[in-house]
Design the sequence.
C-alpha cells in the first residue's frame, strides 16, 4: 500500500504572536509539525505497522521544513519530499499549495492520502480536500477512526461533536481530527535512522510548473493583532453576594443575558 | 460594482441554522446592491425557503432529492455545482460549519477559484471587498482580498450579524432537479453525542470546564448552568486529556475557536493555547480557586472560589431570573 501524508511546518502552539514591519515575527520562534498533521503521520505509521505500507511525507515550503520532515521520518515514515518554493513564490495561498501537491501526486500510485483537517496557523482547512478533488479521488474530513479492510475503508467522522460512520473505498484522502490517535515521540534509534532515510527536494521546475500556473487567487493586505484584553473586575464579599452581583453585571453592564 | 451572490443556507433537524441568515447578510454586503440568491439542498427544504427571503434573500433556489437527506460531499457538491452552472454567480457564501468546511474546498477546486475561509467581517474598501479572518487561532487577524473576479467565502458563525427579519418580503422559490449519482462515500449511521441542539460554534453562551472540574460527573454541574442559559458546554485540553469529556468539546488552538457573547470559564487556568480559542469572546467570566490563574487576565469578571460552590449558585440565580422574566 502506498500512503502519502501532507504535512505543514507551523509555529509551536506555545508561541505568542508578535508583528514586526506588519509581518508575523518568526525570529526565535519554535516550529513544529502542525498538530493535526502529526495525527496524520501517526495514523499512516499505524496502518503501515498493521497492513504493511510505504509512507511518504510531503511538504511545500522552504529549506527549514526539513526539520519537521526528519521528525516524521524518525516517527517511522519511509521517505520525505520537500517541494521547495522559496525561490519561486512570494505569495502563496491554498490554491497554490494544493495545485503544487496535486501536480506532484498525479503520476503516483496512491492508495491513501492523509492530511491534517486544518493547520493551526492559516486555519483554512482547504488543502487536503482541494488536492483530493484535483486528483479526482473522494475524501472524508475530520476523521477520528479509520479501519482498512482490503479496498474498503470504514471511518468515523467527527461532525461538530456528533459521529458519522462512513464507508468508502481506496484510493481515498482523509483529514485527521484530534482524537484519531496519540502521536508517538520519535525514539532515539528512530532519530538515528531518520538521518539516513531519503529526503527528496524538488522545485516548481521539476514538476513542470510555472509560477503563473500556481498564482494565488487571494492576497493578504494586512495583518493585525486583536486588541489586548484588560483584566476586569474580581468580585469580592460573600460568595452568594458575588454571584448575585455577577448576574446583575452580566445583565445590566455587559448586557449579554 | 454590483454582484450576483449565491448564498447557501444550512439546516439541522428540520430548521435553518442561524449561520444561514448571517450568510445572507454577508451576501448582501458583497452584492453591493446586486441580487442575493438563497440556496437550500436537502430532501425536503421548501418549507424553509421563505425564511431566507424574510432575512434578505431576493429569491431562493432549492434542490430536493432523497440523496440529499444526509450530507455527503459528493451528493452536495453535484447539486451545488448544478446550481452554480445555472446561476453563474459572481460570489458564493456559505457557513464555516462542518458542512461548509467539507464542501467549499471541493467546489473551489472544481471552479478553479480562490476561497477565503472562516471570515469574521466584510468591508467594502476602495472598490475592494475586504475579508477579515483569524489566523493562529485568533492570536492574530488578516485582511484578504481576491485577485480574481470570483469571490468565494465561508463565514464563521456568530460573527456577522444577520439582518432583521421582515415577513413582508417576498420572492420566487424555484426548484432544480439535477441528476445525483455515483456517490463514493456512504454514511451508514449518525451517532448523536451532543446534547440538544446547541452547537459549540454557534452557541451564544458557553460554559467551559478545565482540570478543576475533576471528573466526568463534574461536567454535569456545568451542563446544568449551560442548560439554564441555553448554551453549550466546552472544555480545555487539560480536561479532555484527563478523560473528563470528549475531544469534540475542546476549545483552544487545537480544538475549536469560539466567539460567544458570554464565556464562563470554570476551573480553567488559562494556558496560551486555550486563550487563543476563546479570548475573542465578547464577555468572559472566570471562576477559579487560584487568584493568580492566567484566565483572570483576560476575564471581564472574576470570582475567586470553588467552582462546585459558585456554579450551582449561579445556576440558581439565572433560574430565578428566568422565572421573573
Sequence:
Amino acid at each position: 500500500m502506498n500512503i502519502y501524508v501532507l504535512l505543514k511546518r507551523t509555529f509551536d502552539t506555545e508561541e505568542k504572536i508578535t508583528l514586526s514591519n506588519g509581518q508575523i515575527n518568526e525570529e526565535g520562534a519554535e516550529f513544529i509539525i502542525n498538530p493535526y498533521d502529526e495525527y496524520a503521520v501517526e495514523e499512516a505509521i499505524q496502518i503501515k505497522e498493521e497492513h504493511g505500507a510505504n509512507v511518504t511525507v510531503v511538504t511545500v515550503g522552504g529549506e527549514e521544513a526539513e526539520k519537521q520532515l526528519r521528525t516524521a521520518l524518525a516517527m517511522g515514515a519511509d521517505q520525505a519530499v520537500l517541494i521547495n518554493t522559496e525561490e519561486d513564490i512570494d505569495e502563496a495561498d491554498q490554491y497554490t499549495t494544493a495545485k503544487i501537491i496535486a501536480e506532484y501526486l498525479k503520476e503516483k500510485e496512491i492508495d491513501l492520502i492523509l492530511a491534517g483537517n486544518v493547520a493551526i496557523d492559516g486555519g483554512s482547512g482547504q488543502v487536503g480536500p482541494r488536492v483530493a478533488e484535483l486528483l479526482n479521488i473522494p475524501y472524508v474530513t475530520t476523521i477520528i477512526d479509520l479501519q482498512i479492510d482490503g479496498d474498503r475503508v470504514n471511518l468515523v467522522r467527527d461532525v461538530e461533536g456528533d459521529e458519522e460512520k462512513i464507508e468508502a473505498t481506496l484510493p481515498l484522502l482523509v483529514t485527521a481530527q484530534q482524537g484519531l490517535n496519540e502521536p508517538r515521540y520519535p525514539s532515539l534509534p528512530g532519530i538515528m535512522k531518520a538521518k539516513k532515510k531519503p529526503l527528496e527536494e524538488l522545485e516548481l521546475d521539476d514538476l513542470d510548473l510555472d509560477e503563473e500556473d500556481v498564482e494565488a487567487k487571494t492576497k493578504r493586505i494586512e495583518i493585525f493583532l486583536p486588541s489586548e484584553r484588560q483584566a476586569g473586575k474580581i468580585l469580592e464579599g460573600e460568595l452568594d453576594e458575588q454571584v448575585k452581583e455577577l448576574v446583575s453585571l452580566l445583565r445590566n453592564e455587559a448586557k449579554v443575558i | 460594482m454590483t454582484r450576483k451572490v449565491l448564498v447557501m443556507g444550512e439546516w439541522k433537524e428540520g430548521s435553518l441554522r442561524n449561520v444561514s441568515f448571517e450568510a445572507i447578510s454577508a451576501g448582501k454586503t458583497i452584492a453591493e446592491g446586486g441580487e442575493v440568491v438563497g440556496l437550500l439542498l436537502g430532501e425536503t427544504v421548501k418549507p424553509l425557503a421563505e425564511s431566507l427571503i424574510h432575512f434578505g434573500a431576493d429569491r431562493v433556489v432549492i434542490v430536493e432529492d432523497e440523496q440529499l437527506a444526509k450530507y455527503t460531499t459528493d451528493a452536495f457538491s453535484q447539486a451545488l455545482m448544478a446550481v452554480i452552472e445555472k446561476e453563474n454567480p459572481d460570489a458564493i457564501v456559505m457557513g464555516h460549519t462542518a458542512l461548509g468546511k467539507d464542501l467549499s474546498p471541493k467546489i473551489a477546486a472544481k471552479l478553479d477559484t480562490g476561497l477565503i475561509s472562516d471570515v469574521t467581517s466584510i468591508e467594502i474598501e476602495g472598490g475592494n471587498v475586504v475579508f477579515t479572518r483569524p489566523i493562529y487561532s485568533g492570536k492574530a487577524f488578516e485582511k484578504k482580498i481576491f485577485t480574481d473576479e470570483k469571490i468565494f467565502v465561508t463565514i464563521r458563525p456568530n460573527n456577522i450579524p444577520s439582518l432583521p427579519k421582515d415577513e413582508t418580503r417576498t420572492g420566487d422559490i424555484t426548484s432544480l432537479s439535477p441528476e445525483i449519482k455515483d456517490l463514493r462515500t456512504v454514511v451508514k449511521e449518525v451517532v448523536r453525542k451532543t446534547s440538544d441542539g446547541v452547537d459549540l460554534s454557534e452557541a451564544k453562551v458557553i460554559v467551559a470546564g478545565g482540570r478543576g472540574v475533576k471528573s466526568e460527573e463534574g461536567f454535569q454541574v456545568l451542563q446544568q448552568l449551560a442548560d439554564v442559559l441555553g448554551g453549550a458546554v466546552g472544555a480545555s485540553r487539560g480536561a479532555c486529556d484527563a478523560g473528563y469529556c470528549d475531544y469534540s468539546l475542546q476549545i483552544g488552538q487545537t480544538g475549536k475557536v469560539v466567539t460567544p457573547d458570554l464565556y464562563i470559564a470554570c476551573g480553567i487556568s488559562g494556558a496560551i493555547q486555550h486563550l487563543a480559542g476563546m479570548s475573542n469572546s465578547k464577555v468572559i467570566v472566570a471562576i477559579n480557586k487560584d487568584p493568580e490563574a492566567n484566565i483572570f487576565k483576560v476575564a471581564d469578571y472574576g470570582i475567586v472560589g470553588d467552582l462546585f460552590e459558585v456554579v450551582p449558585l449561579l445556576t440558581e440565580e439565572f433560574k430565578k431570573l428566568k422565572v421573573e422574566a
About this structure: The radius of gyration of chain A is 22 Å. Chain A is about 25% helix and 30% strand. The mean pLDDT of chain A is 96.
